Amino acid sequence: xxxxxxxxxxxxxxxxxxxxxxxxxxxxxxxxxxxxxxxxxxxxxxxxxxxxxxxxxxxxxxxxxxxxxxxxxxxxxxxxxxxxxxxxxxxxxxxxxxxxxxxxxxxxxxxxxxxxxxxxxxx
Length: 123
Hints:
The protein is about 0% helix and about 60% strand. By secondary structure, it is mainly beta. The strands form 2 sheets. Strands 2, 4, 5, 6, 9, 10 and 11 form a 7-stranded mixed beta sheet that branches. The model has no long low-confidence stretch (mean pLDDT about 95).
């Protein structure tokens, strides 16, 4: 059973910072890309940032220069450091991992999602 558990969300004033963390647990064979998405009320879920197993990062235009994604392969965790937060960053943030489990002799790849953590930027 694979689980992704996010932490670090909360209420912050505009211009403030938050760090989100996501721990992946379970019987994992390998992890490729890890990332963060967000969904604001009434909007579609959108990619915020991703990081490959080779530490190649990709950011949404809205996140460039303000957010930094990182991963710890030994701990199977991914983090998102968010600075200079704006009210429009308010959303539920979800972490995701493209990972493989071993089922018998079969390696099965799939995308797994966390339950989400609320980030609210407001004065």
